[in-house]
Write a structure and sequence with these properties.
This protein is an alpha+beta fold. It contains 33 helices and 28 strands. The strands form 4 sheets. Strands 10, 11, 12, 13, 16, 17, 18, 19, 20, 21 and 22 form an 11-stranded mixed beta sheet that branches. An 8-stranded mixed beta sheet has the order 8-28-27-26-9-23-25-24, sandwiched between helices. Strands 1, 2, 3, 4, 5, 6 and 7 form a 7-stranded antiparallel beta sheet that branches. A hairpin with a 2-residue loop joins strand 19 (about 470-475) and strand 20. Residues about 220-230 have low confidence and may be disordered. Adenosine-5'-triphosphate binds near residues 328, 438, 442, 460 and 461. It is found in: Cell membrane. One of its GO terms (molecular function) is ATP hydrolysis activity.
Length: about 900
Amino acid sequence: MKEWYSKSKEEILSELNTNLNSGLTKNEVDLRLEKYGSNDLREEDKKSFFSKIVAQFSDFLILILIGAAIISFAVGESKDAIVIIAIVMVNAFLGIYQEGRAEKALDALKKMSSPNAKVIRDGTTEVAPASSLVPGDIVVLDAGDIIPADLRLVESSNLKIEEASLTGESVPVEKDSNVFFEEEVSLGDRKNMAYMSTAVTYGRGKGVVVGTGHDTEIGNIATMIQSFEDEVTPLQKQLNQLGKVLGITTIIICIAVFGIGLIQNREVLEMFMVAISLAVAAIPEGLPAIVTIVLAIGMNRMVKRNAIVKKLLAVETLGSTTVICSDKTGTLTQNEMTVVKVFTDGKIIDVTGGGYEPVGEFKIEGNTINVEDIGDFQTLLSISALANDANLEKTSDGYKVIGDPTEGALITLAGKGNINKQSINKEFPRIEEIPFDSDRKMMTTFHKDYIPNKVVSFTKGAPDIIINRCTRISMDGKILDFDDTLKKEVLKVNSIFSKKALRVLAFAYKEYNNLPNNISTDSNEVDMTFIGLVGMIDPARPEAKDAIAKCKEAGIKTIMITGDYKETAFAIAKELGMAESIDQAMMGEELNKISDEELREVVKNIKVYARVSPEHKVRIVSALKANGEITAMTGDGVNDALALKRADIGVSMGITGTDVAKNTAELILTDDNFASIVSAVEEGRIIYSNIKKFVFFLLSCNIGEIFLVFTSILLNLPVPLLAIQLLWLNLVTDSFPALALGVEKGDPDIMDTPPRNPNEPILTKNMLLGILLQSLAVGVAALLAYRWGLTTYADSIDKARTIAFTSLITAELLRAYSSRSQKYTLFKIGFFTNSTLVYGTLFSFILLLGVLYIPFMQPIFHTFALGIKDWAAILEYAFIPLIIGEISKLFIKK
Ligand SMILES: Nc1ncnc2c1ncn2[C@@H]1O[C@H](COP(=O)(O)OP(=O)(O)OP(=O)(O)O)[C@@H](O)[C@H]1O
Ligand SMILES: [Ca+2]
């Protein structure tokens, strides 16, 4: 059989039974999806329910417990055995439920950040999930796209594809849809093919899907680059470490408890069970799992605030962000462009009319003018419409831009001069082009007969660049030499526009007798004739201003890095409160003259980088990182990928960002809005502080219990808690408040304090002290209650234990409220402001009442129905840890 690359386009199209212009029909797509399966590389390895259960039970400590149950059964304590098994089961199911919740949250995130493709179906181009592609689909490719399936190219224009993910070759290769090969060629040389997961770095093209899913070249490679690997974040590593230390300590204590018990001649089985339950209870082996759950819940909360985090790790890093570097256009501004000024033929023309509706007038000093009256105005408007890749669409709520808003504004401008983009493009179709890229900052298109019997190239782009590449200027109906005096004049107008925060573009053209053979920047974007400038407003986003103020409070620096002109950028930065004086702004090219060392000093003061190219971005991030900053950086183009990778948090735009940028980024903004980065940082901080809260709570619970049991044994008192009571306490009641602490709203000053040092351990000195104090308080309170029980009910050890058990649980439920903030008292944050905690503690408390008052539970848990007198005593002790916790906050400096 012939390979795809050795077939002609016609062969391919007929073999796959598809049409280049109209694509497949939706029906056909459905049929083929049935036949070929979805275009997905990820294995759907959903764990079965059974394997989840097995996973829960394969935990070492749980196995010990099961062993203990079997021993109990063997020595005739079958009731205990059954209860232990039941508690272990409840615990396992809770674990599975929580795991499921986290998994679901993560799955939803994966879906949101999974790629789309532009595909022609039923005659229209639409954006569809890449997973829905089938052989025969016609896919449209633009710079920045990730190839969604294996394609045989059928159209290509300057198409370059980077195939590193497949061939390891990082230099982009040129593609050409017109060749086909008779002989066998290697993967890297198949110019007429585009392979799944490689990236378009330049140009555009079209291809027919020839392979999907596992039936692709990348699918054949067994070691797939899984974008969602199981990762362990530094925090989880720390907690694992902590867990180990605690685990070993606990085991030593348990052995000691058991040993001392034997010396004191206590019953062997009872001591054995207590020691084991204590170990199971006190070893925080579930901690990393809860962290994952809380991170996942937090990620979901971020999605609601328009930020999709792709990695758990990023949630942690976000919270310690110290610098946010942001694009200007669209992120800090609204990206709703309107041309308000035109400069051509030596005159400044005002343009009226707002939005994208092509209705408005041209005025000079207040007097309406006709397009024909001004030298090359007509040509300028034609370039606006011809050197343009966007489209305007009239919808029920006004005109909308499909494509780049800058270009949309230019279509509107042309429309105001009665030039319709569609018709002029029909009249003078594009025969060649040099597409836009943010390194060159310009684009050129070639058209026939705009000047009769000639080919003209129209160029538009950044003024400083275009002006330097022009040698002539069209003025007063003549073509003049574009000398330094004239250039200065034009640059002055550019500066006037820019200072008004206008985004300025320049226009130029060049004529040829015939279409040149080899088209390139060096030969075709030089020696041009200058036509004019346009200035467009792009209003700042109002929310961005608030977000920047918030960053200031939070000790986070904000930096604007833009491709736009320095004065424009500074004007907007000033409006947003990011910069005060023009010395804080710098041109990208100035970076070329300084060393990395010097740059490290420079980045400390500069707030605005203008005319920046993607390599500059990389240098800026590197310098910031070298200074110890935790840097978030936005980017949307193909060339931004390196900078995004280098940043601690790469941020990509969900709407305007390219696939390549989204793929590299850790954070995707669904609304392209700067304010959403700040929300994500805020959530990151909240999540981190919540993790601290429940670590604090759980650890002090555990240590408090150990303290209670250990001290009682040392004091030669009877064992204060039975094995099943300990298990119930830890595996059932404590987990609800702990999880509820994971969804706290965050301290009121969460965004008024400087970022956390990323190297700071989770257990700071303050926290260790707090844990110690709380565990002592819990232990002592329960011990006191136990002693009260022992003296009041000298006849019944079960009753004394019930008192200890109940007071311990009550104390922990109460002090969960105190754990809601490490610094602020409940009077400041409000007692019942975390409703999850209210329900969680209430639920735990009702379970406790069940154990105490339901008759058949009593013999199982060795409890009895408490009376008023008992409760009065219990409450007296149970409030101690809460009160101590609250008072200790008064000594913490805010
Ligand atoms: N479609 C276009 N055609 C021609 N020139 C363009 C086009 N879009 C932008 N430019 C020019 O290229 C420059 C760089 O564009 P780029 O997209 O890199 O950054 P930007 O959009 O100006 O700002 P930011 O980096 O903040 O998004 C622009 O300032 C403008 O002068
Ligand atoms: Ca941009």
